[in-house]
Design goal:
Length: 244
């Protein structure tokens, strides 16, 4: 008999990690995973933020750890995976969420900004996926979910972010490529592509906060997306509801 639909969303005893989990989207994803019953590694370059989020999840009854990782550094990624698998014995769900956005006009973007953005948003995600898969492929099971952006398919305006848009477009095609390569070996690779979310990175940014009213004119609902509107889709991709 097939599992009850609500049981298929439960993640009891599953082991998960979230990069960029020290705030905003990553924090919301970590909370949703813990609420669904998963053991969660809260991973962030800022260890204080990772520990704060991990501490906030301890009351949910799952095993939660904080791990520091700089996704620009392949060695740091491998060490992080080692910490996670030591703590949880395995890894079954990975949200590669860490990302950055530096806003500058294309004609003035320095090479350093291009390199930094791609080091985090694309190179870092690839090597996180690689490290995730090296554990998951041995088990023949795993769910990898990358955080892309609506900027991967449209060009939001009036902000100037050609480098960010390009990195997220590359991330979507990377996700497709890995899904095709690993799917028949039990590892599902997907991405979520949020539209503009109400996060501190938006509301506290001197560059982006003044644009909120302008964006509202292009959004039929007349409001920004809330974090808890994203987490349901994320848990679906991590759950037993997704088998193909």
């Amino acid at each position: 008999m097939a599992k009850h639909i609500l049981d298929r969303f439960k993640l009891q005893a599953r082991s998960a990690l979230v990069t960029g989990a020290g705030q905003d989207i990553g924090e919301a994803l970590s909370q949703a995973l813990a609420q669904a019953g998963a053991n969660v590694a809260v991973v962030d370059i800022n260890f204080d933020n990772a520990k704060r989020v991990a501490s906030s999840l301890t009351g949910l009854g799952t095993h939660v750890i904080a791990v520091q990782c700089d996704v620009r550094d392949k060695h740091s990624i491998n060490e992080m995976i080692g910490e996670v698998t030591t703590a949880f014995e395995t890894l079954e769900i990975a949200f590669n969420n860490a990302g950055i956005n530096r806003n500058s006009s294309a004609e003035e973007t320095p090479a350093e900004e291009w390199d930094e953005t791609f080091a985090v948003n694309l190179r870092g995600v690839f090597f996180c996926c690689q490290a995730d898969a090296q554990v998951m492929l041995k088990k023949g099971y795993g769910k990898i979910i990358n955080t892309a952006s609506m900027s991967s398919v449209i060009v939001p305006h009036p902000q100037k972010q050609a480098v960010y848009n390009t990195s997220k477009g590359g991330l979507v095609n990377l996700t497709r490529s890995l899904a095709a390569e690993w799917g028949d070996r039990g590892v599902r690779v997907n991405c979520i592509a949020p539209r503009i979310l109400r996060t501190k990175l938006i509301t506290e940014s001197p560059v982006l906060a003044p644009l909120v009213d302008r964006w509202m004119q292009d959004i039929p609902l007349g409001r920004l997306c809330e974090l808890d509107e994203l987490t349901g889709a994320a848990i679906y991709l991590a759950s037993e509801c997704l088998t193909t």
